[in-house]
Design goal:
Elements: E1 8-13, E2 18-24, E3 31-37, E4 42-46, E5 51-57, E6 60-64, E7 67-71
Antiparallel strand pairs: 1-4, 1-6, 2-3, 2-5, 6-7
Length: 73
């Protein structure tokens, strides 16, 4: 897989305890990785051959090539 063409997203926590959950590819979608961010922390994540989706829980701002998304839970 050419990682230069992989999509990245930036997640900035607006509150403590924001959860970032990575979900797998394949016949069964499964949780394969979780991270917890505190207020002000930033995580750069990417979609890979193993990660097909991400679930974000909590107040955060997401920055993608498609624009900015505010999550105000």
């Amino acid at each position: 897989m050419n990682m230069n063409n992989t999509d990245y997203i930036v997640i900035k926590a607006k509150d403590n305890g924001v959860q970032v959950i990575g979900l797998t590819r394949g016949n069964d979608t499964r949780l394969h990785h979780t991270e917890k961010l505190d207020k002000g922390e930033v995580m750069i994540a990417q979609f890979t051959e193993h990660t097909s989706a991400m679930k974000i829980r909590g107040k955060a701002t997401l920055y993608t090539k498609h624009g900015e998304v505010e999550i105000d839970e």
